[in-house]
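Propose amino acids for all 182 sites.
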């Protein structure tokens, strides 16, 4: 079962050693049904707004990670921010400066946190892959999705997947847990 079929289920440290020149980004303006522009910092978001914004952000950004997994069995971490005007902005670390996944995730997470603190984004997501719990089974991996909202809500969605010898990728059931805001 592909992640596209699982999407309805998905919906239900600043590191000074990595300079800003290590980032590349692209911006996408898309139709924004059901997504309202961000509230001013002093105003509270309703639970419904938070859900809509996080789900909208994920709907507009998860497919490139899924496609990279299908092509290579893994993917480079990337982050995406939902800007106050409803635009979706993607942030990658430059390929020329490869860093370990854990470092890339911390750098991207820190950048997204900074965007929210500055009012540049109302919701963010960091995508990455990791080895599954059973280290003896190299073909079992996790597609990790860390969602955060400016109001402090945070959750992690994990999608186990396997890469067979013939290159076929199979995605498992979504596991979701609320995360403490860092």
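Proposal:
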């Amino acid at each position: 079962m592909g992640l596209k079929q699982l999407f309805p289920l998905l919906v239900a440290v600043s590191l000074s050693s990595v300079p800003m020149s290590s980032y590349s980004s692209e911006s996408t303006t898309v139709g924004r049904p059901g997504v309202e522009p961000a509230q001013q910092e002093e105003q509270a978001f309703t639970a419904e707004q938070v859900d809509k914004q996080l789900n909208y952000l994920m709907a507009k950004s998860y497919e490139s990670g899924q496609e990279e997994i299908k092509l290579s069995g893994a993917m480079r971490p990337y982050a995406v921010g939902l800007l106050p005007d409803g635009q979706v902005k993607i942030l990658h670390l430059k390929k020329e400066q490869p860093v370990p996944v854990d470092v890339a995730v911390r750098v991207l997470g820190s950048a997204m946190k900074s965007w929210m603190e500055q009012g540049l984004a109302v919701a963010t997501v960091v995508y990455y892959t990791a080895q599954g719990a059973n280290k003896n089974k190299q073909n079992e991996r996790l597609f990790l999705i860390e969602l955060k909202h400016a109001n402090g809500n945070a959750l992690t969605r994990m999608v186990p997947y396997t890469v067979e010898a013939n290159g076929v990728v199979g995605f498992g059931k979504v596991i979701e847990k609320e995360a403490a805001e860092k």
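The radius of gyration is 16 Å. The mean pLDDT is 77.
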